[in-house]
Amino acid sequence: MNSISSGTVLITGPTGSLGRAAMLAMANRPAAQRPDLLLVGRAGAGLTAVAAEARAAGATVVEIGCDLARLADVRAAARQVIDLLAAGAVRPLRALVANAGVSVADTHKASADGFELSFAVNYLAHAQLIDDLLKSFAAPARIVLLGSNTYYQNTVRRMMAVAPADWRDPIELARPTAADVPTSVKLSGTAYSNSKLAIIYYAHELQRHAPDGVNVVVFEPGFMPGTGLARDHGKAAETIGRAMAHLPGISTPETSGPALASIVLDDRWAHLDNGAFVVKDKQRPVQPFANDADREARLWTATTQLLDSAS
To answer: Does the pTM of the predicted model rise above 0.70?
Structure first.
C-alpha cells in the first residue's frame, strides 16, 4: 500500500462514463491498494447505484449529494468532507479528482449563481471545492483535474470543426452569452474549450499556492465520443458519438477510467506536479500559450472575485 491508496480519494461526477469507470477501477483494486472513496455528484438513484457497486467491491464509500451548478451545494459538500475527516469516518484525504464536466449546447444558460454553465461546472465549482479543502489534504496528496486538448485547434480538430479556446478576461468568460447573440455550435465549443484552458492555467497557479506535498496534475483521457458529455446537444449528436466510439484508437471509459485511476493512485506518477499534462498514459507538453504566468495570476484573482460574489 502506498501513501495515496492508504487514504481517501474524492471524485466528482462518479455516476457515469469516465468518472464511474475510474471510481470502479479504484474500488476493485486489492484491499491493500484500495482507498476510501468520497463520491460527489447529484443526489439520486445514479449516485446510490454506483456507491453500491463500489461497496460490493469492498470499498469504504460515502455519497455526497451535490449539484455542481450551485456553489452553495459545493460549499456544503466541502463542509461535509471536513466533518467526515474530523470524525475519522474516512482515512486522511490524499487525492481529489475534479472529473465532472458538461458541454452545453446553449451558452445563454446560466448556473444557479448566474455564471455561464460550462465555465461554472467545469471550472468554478472545482475551484471552489479545492479552495475549501486545500488545507485538509494529508501530504503526499494529488489533485487531478480533467483537461482536454480542445483548448487548441490542430489539423484534425479543424477538419472536425471543433472550436478552440478564445481566451478573454475570466470575468467575461463567466458571463452567459448576451440575449441578443444567437446560439451556435461554435459558441458552445468555444465555451467548453475556454473552460478547459482555464483548468490548465489554474493547475499551474494552484501548484504555486498548494501546501508542500500536494501535487497538481491535469489528465486528458483522449477523444472519447459516445459519453454523456454530448447529451445536451440532442439525439443526433449522441448517435454520431456512439458510432464514432467504435472507431480504432478511440478512447473509451473502459480504457481511460483505469488510466485515470492510475494517475490518482500509482507511485509511477508521484513525480508529476505543477499541472503536468498527461494524455492517456504519457506526459505531454502543452502549447506555449497555455503557459502564461500573467493569465494564470489574473485567473486566480478573478476566480476569488467570482466565488466571493456568489457566497
So the answer is: yes
